[in-house]
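The pair is quoted verbatim underneath.

:::
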Amino acid sequence: MAAGLALVAQGADWLDVGGESTRPGSLPVSQAEEIARVAPVIRELSARLAGTIRLSVDTYKAATARAALAAGATAVNDVSGGLPRSGNPARGCGGQAAMVVGHLRGQPADMQAHVHFDNVVDEVSSELAGRVAAAQAAGCGEVWADPGIGFGKHLPHNLALLKHLAHVRAHLGVPIMVGVSRKPLRRRFDRQAAD
């Protein structure tokens, strides 16, 4: 709560609340645990901020998405882009909540193990187009796309996607959200420091 309110005080207009790490190699938590982590925070942030910001839940589990929307979230940020795992969070949008569909092959625990692209910009654009269409068909009020920087991609793939975001956006016809993270880099430096 304190972190979220501090971010808003610094000018943030969108808060994304997650209850499970999706960094490379991370293991999932149970749906019940994820809901217990995010729902109370979203409920309180929603009550305190009263619609002044966008408030999303970062999950690929349908039940967590539904619980977060019931608690006051206005968007679902699904790194898997609605791929069938624990249900499809897009099905819970109901025409009012926004949906951010991410690009990810595999799961966070193994997504870096078998990375291969012949043309990362075209392949990510094409795969995201299908996910955007599915979210629109599911009735989401607004759909955004996230090319999944660092999610099942190596540095050259990430750089190519960042360089060609205008192409990706033109292909998809929806707003693009880009989340970049230093987690893999920080882990590598931490390992080197430990050695």
Remarks:
- The helical segments are 2-9, 31-49, 62-71, 120-137, 155-163, 165-172, 183-194.
- Strands lie at 14-18, 54-58, 75-78, 98-102, 142-146.
- The longest strand covers residues 14-18.
